Amino acid sequence: MGSSVHDADEWQTRLTDNGIWVEQLLENQKNNVLATVIFGHANMTENGADKFKPFTDIFRNAALNFNKPVLYIHGDGHFWLNNKPWPEQNIIRVQINGGADALKVMINTELENPFSFDNTFLD
Questions:
Q1: d(Cα 46, Cα 29) in Å, to the nearest integer?
Q2: Are the C-beta atoms of 30 and 66 separated by less than 8 Å?
Q3: Helix 8-29 with 53-66: angle, nearest 10 deg
Q4: Using CA of residue 76, residue 82, residue 87, residue 89, what is the dihedral sign?
Q5: Residue 63 domain-assigned (yes or no)
Q6: pLDDT, average across residues 97-102
Q7: Does any domain span residue 93?
Q8: For residue range 12-53, what is the model confidence (pLDDT) as tens digits?
């Protein structure tokens, strides 16, 4: 989640536990999938990256070891972003528009960038 940290110990525990959970999933599925999508809420790069470090350090290392395309989708910022905010080039981050817009994600692992997006498919 975004916003303020209400309890530093609980925050650290939650982010670490979530990072370990993602790490385990990526490791367990490494030989079964060609790409993965991780959903979150917080914009962990522009809105106080240091407070999310317990998660992002584990997540980034796990994605690097996964060595396949990883898409991290989140809300929080309420405007469209599609970029690679971390040095690990296999992680793509998408921040969705706010409001009632839906996002369709298409995955084609035969492409260099396997993820494509359509946020007008319901129009």
A1: 30
A2: yes
A3: 10
A4: positive
A5: yes
A6: 79
A7: yes
A8: 999 999 999 999 999 999 999 999 999 998 899 987 889 899
Asked, for residue 123, whether it belongs to a domain, the answer is no
Tokens of 95: 């921040």
Q: Which amino acid is at 108?
A: N
The Cα 85–Cα 74 span in angstroms is: 13
Does a structural domain hold residue 3?
Answer: no
With a CB cutoff of 8 Å and minimum separation 6, the contacts of 9 are: none
What integer pLDDT is reported at residue 1 of this predicted model?
Answer: 55
CATH code, 83: 3.30.750
Q: What range defines the domain where residue 98 resides?
A: 8-118
pTM of the model: 0.91
One-character DSSP codes across the chain: --S--S-HHHHHHHHHHHHHHHHHHHHHHTTT-S-EEEE-SS-TTTTTGGGGHHHHHHHHHHHHHHTS-EEEEE-SS-S-EEE--SS-TTEEEEE--STT---EEEE-TTSSS-EEEES-TT-
